[in-house]
Structures are given as C-alpha cells and as structure tokens.
Amino acid sequence: PAQRGLLATFQGGRHLGVLRLAVAAMGQSWVRGAGWAIVLFASLALRLMVARWPHSGQGTPPMFGDFEAQRHWLELTASLPPHEWYVNGTNNDLQYWGLDYPPLTAWHSLAMAKVAKVVHPSLVELVASRGAEAPADRTFMRLSVIVCDAFVLLPALALAGALLPPAVEPTGGSAPGTVGRLVSGASAAVPAAWVFLAFPALLLIDHGHFQYNSASLGLALGALALLAVSAGPGPSTGPAGQRQSVLPLLGRLGAAALFALALSYKQMTLFLSPAVFVGHLALAWRASSVSGAGSWSRSLGSFAAEVAALGATVCLVTAAVWLPLCVSLPSPAADFPSSCASVQLAALGRVFPFARGLFEDKVASLWCALEPVLRVRRRLLEGSIGLHSVLRLAAAATAALFLPALLSAASLCGCLARRAAARPPSATARATTASAPAAPLGLSLWLCLVACASGLSFFLAAFQVHEKTILVPLAPLAMGAGIAVAAPPAALGPAGSAARRLYQWLCPLAVAGMAPLLHKEGLALPALAASGLAALVMLEPGHFWGWLGASPLVDGAEKCCWGLRMASLAHCGLVAPALSVAHAALLVGAWLLPPVPAYPDLFPQLLSAVHAAALLWALGVVTTAAWQAAADLGAAVGEPRLKAE
Q: Which of 50, 121, 279, 390 is the most exposed place for a label (fewest CB within 10 A)?
C-alpha cells in the first residue's frame, strides 16, 4: 500500500516541483524514517565537496584572507586576556586582521582555540602561527564550520519544523501542543531543511571562502521560528488557559534572547532587527488584548509589561556577552584601557568601523550604483561632505525602503487582536477558514518576508556594506521558501508561492553578484554547481516568470487593509528576466572582453548597477508579498468569522 500511495503521488504530481513531490513522499511511513538521514548526508557531502576548493587568500601573503582572519582570532583569544582583544598592542596588531566582530564571535573563537590547543597546538601559537595553511590547519578550520552548522543552524531548522502541519495527523481529535508540534513536524520539515542546507550563497561563503555566517544566521532564524511558534493556535480561557499562556511568553522571551545573541555574534544581523522588533510588538499586542479582556487600560499595562520584559531580556543577554571583556583589567599605569567603559568603547569602535567608507569594492548597493552620478563616496573622502551627514542620509534612505513592509505590521496587529478576542468559531466559520493559513504558519511566512525586506533595504542603502552581506536578507527568504515548499500546496496561498519563486530567482542572482570575489578565489565552478543544484530542487514546471506579472499575488495585495493600494506590477512581467539576461551578458562580457583603457571599472560598475536594480525589484515584490501574507491572516481570523456570525 505504501508503494501504491507513492506511485499515485507521482502520477498526480505534474504541477508539483521536485521538492513538493518529496513532501508528498514524506507522507509515506517507509520514507519518513530515512528523510532526515538522507538530507543530513547530502548536505554534509555538499559541504565537504565545496571545502575541497581553495579558501580566501590561500597562498597570497602577507595578508592572506578571511581564512587567516578567522584563524588569527583563535590565536589572539587563546593567548591574550579579553581586555586586549580589541586594543592595538605589541601582540595584537589591529592592522593584521584585528577582531572586528562583537564579543560572542571572540568567545566562539576562544572555545575553538581551547580545542585546537589539545588536538593541534601549532594552529594557535602566538605570532608564529601566522599564515598557517597546512592540510591539518585547513582540516581543523573546515570541520569547525561544519560543527557550527550542526549545533546552531540545524536546531533552528528543526525548530521551524514545529510550524508545519504534522506528517501524521494526531489521533483522538486532540491538537498537539508546542512539544507535540516539534515532534510531529520534524519529518515534515525535511524538505524545508534541504532548501536551506543547500543554500548556495551560504555554502560558498562559509565552506568555500570561509566564514562562520551559519552561527549568526542560525541564531537569528531560530529567533524568528521561536517567535512564530510562540503564536500558538490561540489562547484558551480559564485557569488552564492562563497556565498555557506562560509558555508563549517564555517563547517570546527566548526569541528575544536568541536574537540578542545573534547581534552579539555579528553586527550585520542588525539588518533584520526591524522585522524582529515589529514581530515582537505584534505578538505582545495580541497577548495584551487577551489579558485585558476588553479593557484598554489593562491591555496597555500588559503590553507595556511584556515590552519591558523583552527589553530586560535583551539587556541581560547582551551584558552577559559584553561585560566579561572587563575581567582582569590592568592597573591604571598599564598601556591598555584600565576602565570597563574604555574597553567597551574600544570594542564598539572595532565593531562599527565608520572610517572604512560608504561601501567596499563594487558592491550592489544604491550608493555604489549611483556613485558616478551622486559622487557621495568621493565627496566623503575629499571632506566636502561630513560623515554625520552621510550617516543620516544612509539611515533615511534605508528607513524609506523598509518602512512599507513594516507598515504591514499595523494590519497584522489588528488581525492578531481580533483572533485573540474572537469567540470560538461556529461550524460554518470553520468551514469558511479551512483553507486559510494557520496562525503560526502564516505568521512565520510574514516574519520571513518582512525580515527579507528589511535586510534588502539595509543592503541597498546602509552605510558600509560588502558583497557577502547579501546572505543576511536571503537567509530568512530561504527559510520562508522552505516552509512554503514543505507546507500543503494551498496552505500559504500566493504569498507562499511568491516566497518560493523569489528565492528561486534570487539564489543564482546572489551568487552572480559575488562572481568577482568567487572567481578571484577559484570558486567559479563550485558556484555554478551549487546554483544549478538549488535551481533544480526548487524547479516547478510551467511558465517561470508568470508570477511576476498579472498574478493573484498582486491582485490580493491591492485589496489590503484600509484601502491601501500597492504599486501594481501587472505590466512589469518582463523586468525580472530582462535583469537576469543583462546580468548574465555583463558577466560574460567582463570575462571575455579586455578592460576598456579609459574606463577600467566599466564592467564592475555596470554589474553593480544591474544587480542593485534587481535587488530593488525584489524588494518591491517581497514587500507586496508581506502585505499579502498579512491580508491572508486577516482573512483567516477576521472577515470570514464576521460573515459566519
């Protein structure tokens, strides 16, 4: 019977993508047991294959590259006291890959250095280990990234599995709780995990170029998943419901703690902070609407109390990471900072290096794309415009880009408050909303879309970005696409379809944006292979670009709350393929044609402009999809119930 059921799945799956067929196959008990083993083995094989290629700066003294930077931090943290990690000194030349990430990165480096001292001491010898690139050195460092994936990234993806419908329906008619959803959603999360574990840009940067982005991104995605899980199916009344309401609150506090850890690991996680902030506010407002029981004063008091608790959690976690830098401070006569405040300021100065300029290289930001016209960077270097003016300009431009997506939170707050205050629905209402997205699942998609919009806005307009930062906005989109793939086909509607197809389009585009860096480091062939694999597993038959034109996504988003009409995309269906073709043509031209003597940076500048235009277009699509996701939640908890009543 199992084989016959799987055969029927494939025979009826002509409109399903490769991963959707895998999702359906996971419903067969004989496939579910091996699902995680297959995905983990395949993802490990991918990482080991990419790790066989050169790393950043391999064989290029005296500075080498990011591989040497990460190894050097092991050396520093193993040999120097914490108050010297961010301060220039005899044994810590900040010009030679000084620490410029927050302290949690340093504590992670210290933990790995402790292991290296036992298994491979020469890797962390002070000064003498500089430029270490022996096979044993590379093996230790490469394996440390895989361990980071296993202990940080995988748990976040498993937590996201709690958002998915169970692969086996619960018996007895009882709905599973949070722990039950974690267990029952584990097998359903296998295809979603594969979408993210095969994320080509992360594979190439962490396991090829060499960094530990999976640590900060895993913590941030874990925060988003835990925040969505804490939404729950809806509050109950009575003493049992009051006891159950503690668990969602603890989940939201845990999500705040995870995101604070992500911020303390890598400062670029700030790109996602607006989305996490409004998500917390939305759920806090929903919880206060329940506890207030119709009283505005009690609702506002409960809302303020939860916001204060969230703020205290963030402060405590941040203090636990940063304050240990002040342990064993030197005497005032020493050459190092002797006060805790000076140590913290030195660390902050390294973490936010405004002296590096507006952008690095030919990154696909608006400032780089418009530099031939606006000349902001040149004016900043010449001193004709002040640093504070440029910072304010970048902040205003960034806020203007992500504000439309954040405004969907206002609609979501109303939807969640109505869900919390609504009476149990009648049978007619349950039938009306049967196809609407469940609260945790729909909320998770909305969070991923808003986080992607926030990340893209920062990447396009923030001060001081580089090409590898594209991982930050793509990571939540990858999680949203994975959830959309693993969820039932009609569970998330057009917003889920948009997330899936936008990720399919942006995957190779993000890798192409890093093409100069990857080509320089000898990673061009792995980049092509990883991008092709990601496109293959997400492939769906049919008209690939049709969703960017007159699709249900646009029609639904134009009917959002309060009569707000989004910009119509109905007549722009050729924008995405035109941008892709232009990007590919410029890459081929830069590879085959010699540089123009009068304009040596012509191709890099054109590539930057086209890539920035593509990301700006993607920002418009993901913002529209975020409004659609909020409208879907409103349809699930608002209007259908009113009609039924």
A: 121
